[in-house]
């Protein structure tokens, strides 16, 4: 039996970072919990002060296959390399022929840099480009494969 899991990302600007990752992954804002018309209703019901309502953002896979993502505001900035990173398989992953996969990776690099990501480096495998290491708008590393 598998166990459902989610990923929480500490950040400075939850809503901004959630918008970036929604674009990168094809995710959408997570619907408010059952019985509530909005997240604001849920926050109010649970007594969360209004000045804290923008301290988090939540995404989910519209198809229900991937994990939920939470973005939580923290006071400290990111200072070291991630010990965990995402391999975003925009090209279909390495099982997809390189001639099909690589143009998809290149397109995604352009789309995500326009949304605030930065390219760290392009790595080669067997003499041709294989994946691109990038950072999201807050410096969290990920790879496009």
What would you say about this model in short?
The protein has 145 residues and is α/β, with parallel strands linked by helices. The chain contains three helices and eight strands; from the N terminus they run E-H-E-H-E-E-E-H-E-E-E.
Strand content: 25-35%
Helical content class: 10-25%
Strand order of the largest sheet: 1-4-3-2
CATH class of the largest domain: Alpha Beta
Count of the separate structural domains: 2
Number of strands: 8
Question: H/E order of the elements?
Answer: EHEHEEEHEEE
Question: Which residue ranges are poorly predicted, with pLDDT under 50 across at least 5 consecutive positions?
Answer: none
Mean pLDDT: 95
Using only CA atoms, what is the Rg? 17 Å
Structural class: alpha/beta
CATH topology of the largest domain: Signal recognition particle alu RNA binding heterodimer, srp9/1
CATH architecture of the largest domain: 2-Layer Sandwich
Cα separation of the termini: 29 Å
């Amino acid at each position: 039996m598998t166990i459902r899991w989610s990923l929480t990302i500490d950040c400075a600007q939850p809503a901004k970072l959630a918008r970036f990752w929604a674009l990168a992954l094809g995710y959408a804002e997570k619907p408010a919990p059952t019985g509530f018309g909005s997240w604001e209703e849920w926050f109010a019901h649970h007594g969360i002060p209004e000045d804290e309502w923008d301290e988090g953002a939540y995404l989910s896979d519209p198809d229900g296959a991937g994990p939920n993502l939470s973005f939580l505001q923290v006071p400290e900035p990111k200072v070291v390399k991630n010990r965990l990173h995402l391999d975003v398989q925009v090209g279909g992953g390495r099982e997809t022929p390189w001639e099909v996969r690589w143009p998809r990776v290149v397109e995604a690099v352009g789309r995500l840099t326009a949304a605030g990501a930065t390219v760290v480096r392009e790595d080669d495998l067997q003499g041709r480009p294989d994946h691109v290491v990038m950072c999201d708008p807050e410096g969290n590393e990920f790879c496009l494969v």
